[in-house]
């Protein structure tokens, strides 16, 4: 049956032009699906995880920080961030500024995949966005929202792009050395953990009462966000090879093995030492497992993923539950969601384990080179002087990468915070800190207050208006309600 207008194909958009010979439809479909899964980790994943994990009075603010960052990063990314991270080399740690919106460029083949640049730009955007959103976890419950609005584009431009270009771009100096960072253990998790902790230092702590008692307002909602984060990690690590390949399948399986093992390890430690199976602890264990496997997901075998899961469920648990409580210097920084432990320390573990457990034949699937990448344990098993030398060299590169990311993020994040502070205070006012969402946004997460009475606060009303709101209630007599 022949097609007739309006069902005939337009002559200026023939099927062969829409699907050029260089494009692999399966790879392109998987890359877009993987990018969407990573995007869902942020919106709504981390949005509802943060919104449920904080006190009721910070639910809106915490979720809104996620939503704002997601939108702002996208605009900055297509205007200059992508080419700073993956464009032509300007300096060894930075690309040249350019706009990634020209139609000709977006429809050309990506330099690392058989799909168009449009798919690559979108995939790398969701990675950049989740980094800022993870960073936000360290400063929930007190960072001035206007300061956050300035911080996001500045940190993306002057910190994230440095790490992405240096480690992921084929032109970056650490990339040329042969660092292994499969899907962002360094670029995303170590960066967000260190930068988040640094930002928390400059912003300052929450109110003493909030810091001492900060119960989740909705654990079920928090679990829903955690579930989206876990399942979304399929796209996080599975999309890293830029091809629907054997390596992608292995990376996905290893990801879930490590996460499950880490969750169970953390849970068992909680039961042994605290005599209760903690849901919040299990979520932390899940996250540390996902973070730890990320830099090595597609270049290690399954048994290594189990070992990594045991370590990621026990070492960050120890630093959070024991080391943090013993050293007062660590207690001076108020890290709301413990990103130092769940992302920075877990990211360091993953980077080191990648240097220990990576297999040359798996690295060849991902990097296209077998001899340049070799885990220390494989080098020792082969037993030749050359293999041992390559294994030691790999560990040295992994350590250099850790030091580079830590120094860059501490220094640049500090400069960004100090610059923002010249324009707007980093921390909310005391009055805003006491009231929370109602004072900051004029909105509340839940409409019910006290004994079923609904708050009738106008959206844009002043904190000091005459309407009877929770801010007018005697705080000492309504402690349980404020919590």
UniProtKB/TrEMBL annotation:
Subcellular location, record wording: Cell membrane
UniProt xrefs under SUPFAM superfamilies: Ammonium transporter
Record bears the keyword Transmembrane helix: yes
Its membrane topology: Multi-pass membrane protein
Record keyword Transport present: yes
GO molecular function, one term: ammonium channel activity
Matches recorded under InterPro entries: Ammonium/urea_transptr, Ammonium_transpt, NH4_transpt_AmtB-like_dom, RhesusRHD
Gene3D superfamilies associated with the record: Ammonium transporter AmtB like domains
All copies of domain Ammonium transporter AmtB-like, residue ranges: 29-446
Pfam families linked to this entry: Ammonium_transp (PF00909)
Cellular component, GO annotation: plasma membrane
Regions crossing the membrane: 29-51, 63-83, 121-140, 147-170, 182-204, 216-236, 248-272, 279-298, 304-323, 335-357, 399-424
Sorted UniProt keywords: Ammonia transport, Membrane, Transmembrane, Transmembrane helix, Transport
Main location group: membrane
Family that this chain belongs to: Belongs to the ammonia transporter channel (TC 1.A.11.2) family.
Name used for this protein in its record: Ammonium transporter
Organism: Artemisia annua
